[in-house]
Amino acid sequence: MSLQPKIRLTLEEYLASECKAEYKSEYFNGEMFAMAGASERHVLIVTNLVAELRRQLKRRPCTVHSTVLRVRVSPTGLYTSPDVVVVCGQAQFADDQKDTLLNPTLIVEVLSEPTKDYDRGGKFEHYRTLTSLSEYVLIDQDKYHVEHFVRQPENRWLLSETNLLADTIHLSSIDCDLALTEVYDKVEMPA
């Protein structure tokens, strides 16, 4: 049996291919990983989040971005495109293209079956190395469930979670409230 050798990419090769790509991918340690396509529920949740956060942040020094903006986790070398990112204050970018953010304040990922374990585990491990990151939110697209992680002193993270549609999550780092009724507005759950 012969094994195909892994093709290693330089960072420059990855960034050049991303500019031309029809789909988003992550980059880590010389390898590029295609990101899964999004379901209608996924897209609706991201749209709801961006609209709700933008409304609340309109007259404040924070901006909200969706998957189009890439994030570089400088301490580990991961390049990824979270579902929603909020940055407060002056955004710092990796280069003049201004398509790779270095200092997110809040990251939100909408969970899908193929990536949920990675989003909770390995990816969150990378994200925790970002000193600018204060909160991390995971939103399930297959049931009403939100996990909310808040950075504590001594680099500890506090988890709270809910599956009650009547609940509201307070995002203290950006002083916004996310009502689950808004997050899941018009999202039809699977039977």
Topology:
Blueprint: H1 11-20, E1 25-28, E2 31-34, H2 40-57, E3 62-66, E4 70-73, E5 78-80, E6 84-88, E7 100-101, E8 106-111, H3 116-120, H4 122-127, E9 135-140, E10 146-152, E11 156-162, E12 168-171, E13 176-179, H5 180-183
Parallel strand pairs: 4-7, 8-9
Antiparallel strand pairs: 1-2, 3-6, 4-5, 6-8, 9-10, 10-11, 12-13
In round numbers, the mean pLDDT is: 89
Oligomeric state of this protein? single chain
Across the major sheet, the strand order is 3-6-8-9-10-11
Domain count, please report it.
1
Give helix and strand order, one letter per element, not per position: HEEHEEEEEEHHEEEEEH
Which bin fits the share of residues in helices?
Answer: 10-25%
The CATH architecture would be Alpha-Beta Complex
Number of helices: 5
The name CATH uses for the topology is tt1808, chain A
CATH homologous superfamily identity: tt1808, chain A
Uncertain residue ranges: 1-5
Structural class: alpha+beta
Distance between the termini: 44 Å
Overall body shape: globular
**Using only CA atoms, what is the Rg?**
17 Å
- CATH class label: Alpha Beta
Strand coverage percent: 25-35%
Number of strands: 13
Largest sheet: 6 strands, mixed
General description of the model:
By secondary structure, this protein is an alpha+beta fold. 23% of the residues lie in helices and 32% in strands. The chain is built from five helices and 13 strands. Strands 3-6-8-9-10-11 form a six-stranded mixed β-sheet. A hairpin with a 4-residue loop joins strand 12 and strand 13 (176-179). It is globular, with a radius of gyration of 17 Å. The N and C termini lie far apart (44 Å). 27% of the residues are buried.
